[in-house]
Amino acid sequence: MRARDGFLEWTLRADPKVGLRHVGKCMICWESCVDTRSADKARDWCLKHVGATGHTGFQVSAFEFFDAILTDHPSVNGTPPT
Ligand SMILES: [Zn+2]
After folding, report:
1. How far is the centre of ligand 1, averaged over its atoms, from the C-alpha of 25 (Å)?
2. How many angstroms separate the alpha carbon of residue 52 from the centre of ligand 1?
3. Distance 56 CA to ligand 1 centre (A)
4. Residues 6+ apart with CB under 8 A from 9
5. Is residue 60 part of a domain?
6. How many domains does one find in the chain?
7. Is residue 77 domain-resident?
8. What is the distance in A from the centroid of ligand 1 to the CA of 75?
9. pLDDT for the residue 29
């Protein structure tokens, strides 16, 4: 995704080492697990929370971290740094 801001053009770049993160959250007490790469681990946390609290309403959400970098940055356009 790119956007132009005045004379500068920016692009968003996800960090492939971090990847998509998942969080399980209780909709009763709003407690949530630490974000994890695995959706199954986030759901496992929800099941453990049911056992510990009896709470039965949950949400699993996914998110991704991005850096905004200038489009003419060497790591975006493939040209070696000068
Ligand atoms: Zn809860």
Report:
1. 8
2. 9
3. 8
4. 2, 3, 70, 71, 72
5. yes
6. 1
7. no
8. 43
9. 98
* Residue 76 is assigned to a structural domain of this protein: no
Share of the chain above pLDDT 70, in %: 84
What is the model's pLDDT at position 18? 85
Average pLDDT over residues 2-18: 82
Residues with CB in 5 Å of ion ligand 1? 26, 28-29, 31, 53, 55
Q: Which pairing describes strands 2-5 and 66-70: parallel, antiparallel, or unpaired? A: unpaired
| Ligand 1 geometric centre to CA of 34 (Å) | 14
Whether the predicted model's global pTM rises above the 0.90 cut: no
Domain that holds residue 18: 10-70
Q: Is residue 51 part of a domain?
A: yes
Ligand 1 centroid from CA 43, angstroms: 13
